[in-house]
Amino acid sequence: MPRLATLAVLATLAGLAPAAALAQSQLAPPLTARVDSAIAAVIEAGETAGVSVAVARGDRVVYANGFGAATVDPRRPATDRTVYRIGALTAQFTAAAVLRLVDEGRLALDDDITRHLPGYPTQGRRVLVRHLLEHTSGIASYTSLGPRWERTMARDLPADSIVALFAREPFDFEPGTAFRYNNSGYFLLGLIVERASGQPYATYVRTTIADPLGLGTLRYCGSGAEAGTANGYTIDRGRFAPAAPLSMTQPFSAGALCASAVDLARWPALLASGRLVPAPLYRRMTSPDTLADGRVLDYGYGVGVREFAGRRTIEHGGGINGFAAHLAHYPADGVTVAVLANTQTFDAQRLQRAVARLVLPGAGPRDLPLAAAEQRVYAGDYVLGAHLPVRVWVERGRLTAQPQGQRAFGLLHQGGGVFVTQYDPDVTLAFMVRDGRAASFELREVGRTTVATRRTR
């Protein structure tokens, strides 16, 4: 069903109280209530079993809360301190570990990887450490090998057995010529960290990153249940079911770390502080790299470098069996938003952006003036997709929409016949006008567009 159904739920939740036993907020009470309500809505809509969210200004947490269940059976509530598997967010910790070793002179970004991994079959190509960091190596990603990897993912395997899955696969492209997200590259980076440091990857992360920076929950995940840690779920026939098992030997330095939302929210400012890596290497990590033909990427080392709400963002998502995560740092504001959920289909980025719009100054969507005569152009009855009736009308001077059987919500005018929904600005209604009135609109969501046509009487 189109996401309008979920948005209608959002419109009913202004008074919902958080489900967490522990919470903290230094935001103004009205803003805290709005953030709580936005997060509680995804639990009410059944999008995830549990979720924890934290907001930091600098390395100081100003909001943290948990909603829903960290474990479904027996039920244990999610809190601001619940620990989750963070999936691909692991990559930025691995990248930071590599850069620390670069700063210490134990390796170089332009080292051929065979200097640290003797015998690795580069098939006549020169693959550099920085190619692994920026996902431009061309090495085949083992998690994209389909059944060949999937049938082994629940097994505890030594690193050389996992490397053997992909090492002799054909390259996807020549190193440095294209970008493709690559878990094999970050797996190899973990091995390089071990060789250069003389320590196991998990130990190096703990002793060099987690302990010195005071990130008490950051650790290598265990494969079984642990106290204070969320269980991972999928949705099966409308119910939360345990996610497919995954041995944590498999994701390794590409995805095997765990942390709380509170510690993740503090991490970007601590990384930028110079305590772990010096400013020049931090700038390199958080700046877009360039391909051999001059094309500029939107990716640095373990982090995306993008824009949201008119701001530069340093961000990354994480998805792993049973879990979804998103972490975004807004350098100009000194604000970081961390979202961790324990259901693998959950859209953590969408919730992160909803929270960011609330806490970043001027980040909410605009609502341009629209004369009464212009509003009447869009008002009418529509059918969304094959069968869902949607009514659009003017109420108290604002266009309002209501899917049949659901609550109404406002539309915010962006100009040119384009509106965003009041409760999720990532959802857009773009109206097509013919002969002085709208004949249809497109409901545009992330990755999906659905057409609604005007009903004729």
Automatic annotation (TrEMBL):
Q: What InterPro entries does the annotation carry?
A: AmpC-like, Beta-lactam-related, Beta-lactam/transpept-like
Keywords in alphabetical order: Signal
Q: Does the keyword Signal apply?
A: yes
Report domain Beta-lactamase-related positions.
36-356
Its signal peptide is 1-23
**Origin superkingdom:** Bacteria
Xref: SUPFAM superfamilies: beta-lactamase/transpeptidase-like (SSF56601)
Check the record and name the PANTHER family matching this protein: BETA-LACTAMASE-RELATED DOMAIN-CONTAINING PROTEIN, D-ALANYL-D-ALANINE-CARBOXYPEPTIDASE/ENDOPEPTIDASE AMPH
The entry's protein name is: Beta-lactamase-related domain-containing protein
Q: What organism is this sequence from?
A: uncultured Gemmatimonadaceae bacterium
Q: What is the lineage of its organism?
A: Bacteria, Pseudomonadati, Gemmatimonadota, Gemmatimonadia, Gemmatimonadales
